[in-house]
Amino acid sequence: MAIAALDAQLLISGGIVVDPIKRTQRRADVLIRDGMIAAIDERIAGQIRSAGKGPPTIDAKGLIVAPGLVDMHVHLREPGFEYKETIATGTRAAVAGGVTSVACMANTRPVNDCPSVTRYILERAKAAALARVFPIGAVSVQLAGEQLAEYAGMHEAGIVAVSDDGMPVMDAELMRRALECAKMFDIPVIDHAEDRTLAAGGVMHEGAVALRLGLRGIPAAAEDVMVARDVALAGLAGGHLHIAHISSAGAVQMVRQARASGVHVTAEVSPHHLWLTDEAVMGYNTNAKMAPPLRSEEDRQALREALADGTIDAVATDHAPHHRDEKDVEFDQAANGIVGLETLLPLTLQLVHDGLLDLPTAIAKITSEPARILRLSTGRLEVGVPADLVLIDPTHEWLVSSESLLTKSKNTAFEGWKMRGRAVVTLVDGRIVHDERARGATAAS
Amino acid sequence: MFERRHLLGLEGVSAEEITFLLDSAESFKEVSEREIKKVPTLRGRTVVNLFYESSTRTRTSFEIAAKRLSADTINLSASASSASKGETLTDTARNLAAMRPDAIVVRHPSAGAPHLLARHVDCPIINAGDGAHEHPTQALLDLLTIRSHKGQIAGLTVAIVGDLLHSRVARSNLFGLRTMGARVRFVGPPTLVPPQFADLGAELVNDLHEGLRDADVIMMLRIQRERMNGRYFSSLDEYSRLYCLSVDAVAKARRDVIILHPGPMNRGVEISSTVADGPYSVIMDQVTNGVAVRMAALYVLVGRRRGIEADDGEHSTRDAGTAGGRTAGAAALPLRRAAAAE
User: Do residues B205 and B305 both lie within one domain?
Assistant: First the structure.
């Protein structure tokens, strides 16, 4: 792997540079110096050529040059579940998928509900030296939904949000206090919006498919009532509510209305909820089992519309690695979730191919928008910011094969799908952390 | 004909396939009437009954069916809870498969468990009930019972009454009956009859008397007492007040109605004793037909597939050959061949 020294320069020439904040795309060269973006201009390469010997150059002709992707919803599993994924393997998969900023959820063992766990995660991320890792702290101690976790200490240690993802906060009063306390630190409360009394025992979306398969359903209303409750609480508390992996048409409509009435609410959607429905469960496919569940086609269409009209701000994977033994079991015993870091980019680009989003907007949904929600300085492509970049070949076609994924777990719902678009080179701080060209060359030799 | 490797459910099974299974069962019924209730069709074959839920009726029925076909049977009972602490279902499956059984009959509390097994073993899998999903041999014996009383299934109105939501019997019957051209009404309280059942082809009725109007067949489902705990319905008494099949309720149906129940019955809860023991009840026919249907399923999946050349007709099978003449289906074939070998 080629590594540019920090004080060196690197030129990326001839690519289509996408600025997700200005929502523009243009052909330009990008000059990196000391790990920072030093210049973006059409003529850099020409000027350097006429001046004689230039810096090392990556020819980006035919490639898209975008900010490194920001995935705001990832389960890195470390500490505690290293058999599923580690911070090293998870960030390795991230950069292979073009993701340079990863926000990781608190449901580790021990739970990230105190500063020492936050610091441990950051140390492990530093040692892995691949993607940037932004820990998300727990809303409540042990995710038990009873008392608030140490927001001040965790914030000082580096958390960017709080969430009891996976263990929805059923106590409305605690949710209110969480929103109030998080406001002090200007961080969002990320809401896994699912009423656990309505979802109890359910293993898939409640509908005709669940009835046909004899599986207990989780009604879309389980999400709707929680979103309704929490936007009301956000209005009361004045904090920032972020709805994670929004999945139902009703929830989308409530976010739309709440935002119109001035509540600070944002939302993300997962690629699988944009691409799959409850039909994917047919045959008891445990890689189609997740929380919230894959829903109806009507829900899926509502999510796509909401992404296009801006009601849904971001696309985030909910990357949830599980060991094979946790999926190759009876459907109702199987673990929830799928891996997603390495398929986020092509599945988002496909929305451009489908005509749902233009290219800069699609890129914004996986860079500047999640960065804005988490108040990160990454996810932008401007002079003076760290050179976290991804070079994308938008025409590269490849088949998803779980065996060739770099994540430690292989639970993808997209096995055998034909993807279009791939991260070719990924840089963090101007340093090449993934180079598909080298990987391809090795495979060919 | 029935060319499937497994019998996992009746969804998607064609009318021709169902008719073939019923015709085969019809020809096996006679075996149970003999003094020596045994044919050599599956001699040397091994059938494993793998039951993760307690069952007396179904397991016994399968065991008798296999034995009357001369198969060796092994019964394995495992509580799903103890299994979840130890060996996984897939490991159990692989271990069983390594012992080369010719069929595995499985009952499991998880919907889809037989499908998981089928992905891990080579031999045919017969679903003997998986969670709230399907119980295909129960539906086949119900279809056989209905057909033998009514002559045909197409055009009949069948009312299925009770806890539809959790019933695998109801689902398998819905799929089978619809495929055979019957109208199916699901009758029960809204908590146990979700509206999406209409998407699967059922007519939904909450009122018992309305639901039974002009029915040709009434199929009562067993009520699980533990479910009537105030979440789906306030109490067993309340349920019984609205849905117990009384003589008055039966009067709403056609005069020649027949009444089925998959058993075991809760007398006085979902069905009154007068009705259960009355002239309309064909419950004992169901039990008898259960053995024949399971013989047919085992024969179709195991015997016919592997061939019967090795059978030397040690037992007299001449009668079976002529009995097969009624339907002249392929089911009669091995019996005739065995007879010829004699």
Answer: no
Do B241 and B208 lie in a common domain? yes
- Flag if B111 and A213 touch (Cβ within 8 Å): yes
For residue B322, pLDDT over 70 is answered with: no
Q: Please report, for the domain that includes residue B94, its CATH number.
A: 3.40.50.1370
Beta strand extents in chain B (DSSP E only): 46-51, 72-77, 103-108, 125-130, 157-161, 183-187, 203-205, 217-220, 258-260
B143 and B268 belong to one structural domain: yes
Tell me if B55 sits within 8 A of B107, measured CB to CB. Answer: yes
Give the list of residues 6+ apart from residue B57 with CB closer than 8 angstroms, or none: B263, B264, B287, B290
Asked if residue B7 belongs to a domain, the reply is: no
**Region label for A142, one of left (φ > 0), alpha (ψ between -120 and 50) or beta (otherwise):** left
Q: Which of B257, B285, B313 is the last residue of a domain?
A: B285
Q: Tell whether B164 is covered by a domain.
A: yes
Overall average pLDDT of the B181-186 stretch = 98
In this structure, the strands spanning B46-51 and A241-243 are unpaired
Could you tell me which of A14, A35, A37, A17 has the C-alpha nearest to residue A26?
A17
Verify that B213 and B117 share a domain, yes or no: no
Residue A29 has pLDDT above 90, yes or no: yes
Interchain proximity B116–A329, CB inside 8 Å:
yes
Domains defined for chain A, CATH in brackets: 9-65+386-397+420-444 (2.30.40.10), 68-374 (3.20.20.140)
Query: What strands, in cross-sheet order, belong to the sheet with B72-77?
Result: B72-77, B46-51, B103-108, B125-130
Nearest to A284 among B112, B132, B199 (CB): B112
Residues of chain B positioned with their CB less than 8 A from the CB of A210: 196
Whether A211 sits inside 8 A of B110 (CB atoms) is no
Return the closest-CA partner of residue A199 out of A166, A155, A237.
Answer: A166
Q: Chain A within 8 Å of B89 (Cβ-Cβ)? A: yes
- With respect to residue B30, please indicate whether it lies within any of the assigned structural domains: yes
**Is the same domain home to B156 and B273?**
yes
B81, closest residue in chain A (CA to CA): A333
pTM comes to 0.91
Structurally, chain B folds into a number of domains equal to 2
Helix H or strand E encompassing A391: strand A389-399
Residue B89 to residue A283, Cβ atoms within 8 A: no
* Residue B315 pLDDT level (bands cut at 50, 70, 90): very low
The answer to whether residues A160 and A375 touch, using CB atoms and an 8 Å cutoff, is yes
Q: Closest CB to A214: pick one of B89, B133, B194.
A: B133
Give a yes or no: residue B5 inside a domain: no
What distance lies between CA A258 and its chain's CA centroid? 24
